[in-house]
Amino acid sequence: MKPLFKRLFSDSIAFAIANVGNKLVGLLLFPVFLRNMEQVEYADWGMTNTLTLVVTYLSMLGTDAAFAFYYHDVKTQKERRGYLSATLFFSCLMCLIYIIASLLFSRPLSMFLYASGTKNQWVISIAIVATLGAIIIQHLLAYSRYQHRKWFFTIFSMSYVIGSSLWSVYFVVVEKQGLYGVFYGQLIGQGTVALVLLFLYRKELTSRFPTQYFKNLLQYGLPLLPTLMVFWVMNMVSRPIVYHMVSPEKAAVYEAAIRFASVIALITAPFQLAWRPFSISIKDREDAPRLYGMVGRGGLVVGSLAIMCLSFVIEPLVQWVASQNKPEYFESYRYVWMLSFGTILNVLHLIVGVGLLIHKQTRTISHAFMVAAIIYLSGCLILTPILELWAVCIMNVIAYLFIIIFVYWQNQKIYPVDFRFRSMLIYITVYLCSMAGITWIQIHHWPHLWIYYVIALFITIVAVFASGLFSINQLSRVKKWFN
């Protein structure tokens, strides 16, 4: 098991290099956009991202997850190239359809989406064209990831993020293009890298592949589409809810909180990139269930403690990034930890439901997400007029807790894994109480905050061992492995 842990850890670190660079770029440019865009424009940026994410899901239709499975399931390089070509062709064709639709219906779409109406009429079309480049990049870099071309993946991941960001800064700051400038930059940056990757992978792509590949991809991927759409509902529809039920100004504050919460992706995103191919590649080993259990428990502890440590410095960090010229964004720090913890729980469902993915029972995961979406949406619509931003944050945690409980329960029926799930729930309860206490004392500006931070951290760490999630001996053994 030690070599397997090392392999998962090394893969995650390799992908983290690209992810850390990308997130740092995003964090550094965050104050630039914050200070050079009007508050309503900043909220409109979030609304546009909401639309482009759903376009991405509807273009791929789960074929990216299906390609990850079939890449490791088939035996020959010819078959892998065929699946790559089929996946890329299908996703690009679907995205082209949405580009044409956005051009035909740009006016009513902009009036529905933005408070400013037709002022941003062509932003949607520009953003979807840029999304086409992002889809090509995502598929080809996924292929390089499965080939273990880690440095290739790292270089091109950072290239398109840095390039897009720099071009966006130019159009926003120098050309004063506002919201349009953000997506002009993405269009140039993502389009350029997509063309370069297509040229480099031209010998890996083929125009001849069995139509059965499309059928296989869609049979595996389509059941995941409700999961992806519900993920969109729980992560993106909260923006229009706040935008229209509270105010565009509060939506801008919420968008800022989301940007800060994305810092936790420095941990989760590299792990997610490494986990899917890794978990499938070891599925036939006898010790695989034991490793899945340890990874699930370890991921919960590491991720949650990272969020707690971030919460200790989040208030001054927000004030520094926003600067004294934008005090209207200062309150966004309050919501960061809940949004970040939702990300941890989302990653956790991939681990506690690993057996469902191995046995192609993706419909079960979709059912969990569909029920969670109803819970989330209902709670947001009822509570947002009363609790405003707190409503969407609280419902985010509740919905994801439901998902991991349901997915775990179904997974144990077909692929039992000892996750010590009761201990996980006890730890999560203690953790949520500790974080709620930290937020309370921050809002009320208690003196000597560091004392309460130390107490909360101590209680949470004690809960790891008191709940039975891990023992001291297990912790020592894992430490020796990594040493």
From TrEMBL:
Residues annotated as transmembrane: 12-34, 54-71, 83-101, 121-144, 151-173, 179-201, 213-234, 254-275, 295-314, 334-358, 365-383, 389-409, 421-443, 449-472
Q: What is its main location?
A: membrane
A GO cellular component entry from the record: plasma membrane
* Location(s), subcellular: Cell membrane
Q: Which InterPro entries match?
A: Poly_Biosynth_Transport, Polysacc_synth
Query: Has keyword Transferase?
Result: no
**Which keywords label this protein?**
Cell membrane, Membrane, Transmembrane, Transmembrane helix
Q: Does the keyword Ligase apply?
A: no
What domain of life does the native source organism fall in? Bacteria
Instruction: Write down the PANTHER family for this protein, in alphabetical order.
Output: O-ANTIGEN TRANSPORTER-RELATED, PST FAMILY PREDICTED COLANIC ACID TRANSPORTER
What is the protein's given name?
Membrane protein involved in the export of O-antigen and teichoic acid
Q: What is the lineage of its organism?
A: Bacteria, Bacillati, Bacillota, Bacilli, Bacillales
